[in-house]
Specification:
CATH architecture of the largest domain: Orthogonal Bundle
Shape: flat
Helix content: 55-70%
Strand content: under 5%
Number of strands: 0
CATH topology of the largest domain: Tetracycline Repressor, domain 2
Radius of gyration: 23 Å
CATH class of the largest domain: Mainly Alpha
Order of helices and strands: HHHHHHHHHHH
Structural class: mainly alpha
Number of helices: 11
Distance between the termini: 55 Å
């Protein structure tokens, strides 16, 4: 260990043996520790996850926990890998790469709603854990039918995941704001809608007025999600055709 408290040599948690070749079996597994951290984050948010809280959850001392997970960043990586394992990946893709990627994106969206802390930890830094690699390999298998380089396919996967993360982050922020309102969400929308329509009717915003004139009613967020993602996928399909 260096004087700064950091390991002298960088070490990925997945390259660190979970147990030594000799000696007694460890009292806890990484899966136990990750599951405890996920439970805490699901119940009380990511900021509630600390080494002390996780140690208490599994019933060990805080310093003992560091023998299993050297850094809090490693704990986060274990958490991301654990929930990534919730993706239900078929043994073989359907052969329709566009439909398969849309289905995966819908799964990821649902997963992020089950674990609202997850968007905060979505980062390429945590993108190469065992379950993340399993997911990525499946994505690339789904894209076998897309005539593009592997580099382009990786960009597609990154763009899809980035879009899902941003979309869900906005959904979660909107839901959190609604819970903090001193009135109902319906009252808030009515108040803001009335103000907006008064402004539009002033004539200063003719394009906005035209947009509201063709408004077809409340937005279907699920349909909007599919359309937005479809446009991303279509752009890669056009690029593969050279159009």
């Amino acid at each position: 260990m260096a004087a700064s408290g950091r390991p002298a040599v960088p070490e990925v948690i997945w390259a660190r043996p979970e147990r030594a070749g000799r000696g007694p079996r460890p009292a806890y597994s990484r899966a136990d520790i990750a599951a405890a951290a996920v439970r805490i984050a699901d119940a009380d948010g990511l900021d509630a996850v600390s080494m002390r809280r996780v140690a208490a959850e599994i019933g060990c001392g805080t310093m003992s926990l560091y023998n299993y997970v050297p850094r809090k960043e490693d704990l986060y990586e274990l958490m991301v890998d654990t929930v990534s394992g919730e993706h239900e990946l078929p043994e073989e893709p359907s052969g329709d790469w566009r439909a398969d990627m849309l289905a995966l994106a819908q799964q990821t969206r649902a997963l992020m709603h089950r674990h609202p802390w997850l968007p905060r930890l979505m980062s390429p830094v945590y993108g190469f854990s065992p379950n993340a690699l399993r997911y990525l390999e499946h994505c690339l298998a789904c894209l076998d039918g897309l005539d593009a380089t592997f580099g382009t396919k990786m960009e597609l996967v990154a763009m899809v995941n980035g879009m899902v993360t941003t979309y869900v982050s906005n959904e979660l922020a909107t839901a959190e704001r609604s819970r903090s309102l001193p009135w109902t969400e319906e009252q808030d929308q009515a108040m803001r809608g009335a103000y907006l329509m008064r402004e539009v009717r002033t004539g200063r915003y003719p394009r906005m007025a035209a947009a509201f004139a063709e408004d077809s009613g409340p937005i279907d967020l699920d349909a909007f999600f599919e359309r937005a993602l479809g446009r991303v996928l279509d752009s890669f399909a056009r690029e593969s055709r050279g159009t």
